[in-house]
């Protein structure tokens, strides 16, 4: 009996390691691409704008195919889907080594990476649900979240050193090795699940979900650049559409397609007794509250990372290493609390743990506001990041438990696609709405000060008044612009101070929005039923 028990424990350990490695690979892939900016620009004589396009491919592919992927595993098997995802990851890494241009990386490598994420995320969740009893899942989900945090913490540092000291592609070689090891572990250590295939595959529903999510995510990602109420894009719209930006029209189109998708799913389910998203989920209060909790968590995660890094590196001119150390504190705290929450707080219901987690995020937002000024952040920023990491780590271990309990064991395996879709939507909202709102307050401050006050020269008033957007720039960039446009030197110090104060308003506005999102999370958690 001891031998059997030891064998079972060893198998469980190997299964967890394989799933954690798969999650690690996704995060490592994203982190390596993010830190490779300067190396890719130098190698291919490219620019930041080209890399922005590359960075949008991954979430667009992920958002458009996640719901379909969430049911595809029932047809081919979740283990096979995970293996396919890891193969795509290996192919993506290899394709970067032979890339002839930045366009190749954008269209081929990032597409393959997006397909890897599409397959790995929902299959990992389904394999956890299929292999572990409900009372064990929180610990495993916590370990998966910790794996993601570990990659986010160490990969930028290691890959950054490799890009600086070895070659432009060395970091991608390391990522390919991670994918290869994870692939071998998945093949050797994960046993397949017995799945009941749905009666009919919903082709039209797959197309509708893909198009609607593609439009919604693309619209959200482009709204900070193209504007909301005003068209700041380089495209001319017909007169009857010109009162909104193209990003909002794309977003409206995506929401319309999603409404069509929901109606189609109801009819398809009635006819074939299966659907990509069961209609009962839309009437399930616990599930809908879980959706709000999950989106709120990812909005905070995405909005915090984007807003904080921009403020640290642009507003107060911290180096990449100094910024990385602050982010590292956040990542370590996330890892620790993802792991210990299901163990240390197992006597508490996920409702109260999630309430506490969102309260921590609200407290951390207030602390981040207090410790920041126009030209520095004090040491309390490390405490704020620790608390933020604790809150996100606690939520990472509990949010999926809330959703899986809401839908029941019969349909629990299928929530992976929904979770991954909500992840993309939440992060997109965090980047677009949270950061976009901060940008709007900054522009409002600068325009009001410059255009309305006579102390500024006509040249700078005209430049600000005629510009569609006001960029978020460093003091050195602004100084260079002032010299190039022959703005009187007597105005330089005043404009530099205004720029600094406006960047701080940008950061504080975004932080307070994160606080409000935390309150929304608290409200959703408080309405959860205790089971």
What layout of secondary structure does this protein have?
Layout: H1 2-35, H2 37-44, H3 48-76, H4 78-97, H5 102-131, H6 134-165, H7 170-189, H8 203-226, H9 246-272, H10 285-315, H11 320-344, H12 350-370, H13 380-407, H14 415-452, H15 458-466, H16 475-484, H17 492-526
Helix pairs in contact: 1-5, 1-6, 1-7, 3-4, 3-5, 3-8, 3-14, 4-5, 4-7, 5-14, 6-7, 6-11, 6-13, 8-9, 8-14, 10-13, 10-14, 10-17, 11-13, 12-13, 12-17, 14-15, 14-17, 16-17
Protein architecture, described:
The protein has 531 residues and is mainly α. Among the domains are: 1-193, MFS general substrate transporter like domains (Growth Hormone, Chain: A, Up-down Bundle); 201-268, no CATH class; 443-509. The chain has 17 helices and no strands. The longest helix has 38 residues, at 415-452. The chain is globular and about 75 Å long. The model has no long low-confidence stretch (mean pLDDT 86).
Relevant terms:
0% strand; 531 residues; mainly alpha; single chain; Permease
Tell me which CATH architecture of the domain at 1-193 applies here. Up-down Bundle
In the CATH scheme, the class of the domain at 1-193 would be Mainly Alpha
Proportion of strand residues: under 5%
Biggest β-sheet description: none
Oligomer: single chain
Full CATH superfamily name of the domain at 1-193? MFS general substrate transporter like domains
Main structural class: mainly alpha
Secondary structure tally, helices = 17
Q: How many strands in all?
A: 0
CATH topology of the domain at 1-193: Growth Hormone, Chain: A
Secondary-structure element string: HHHHHHHHHHHHHHHHH
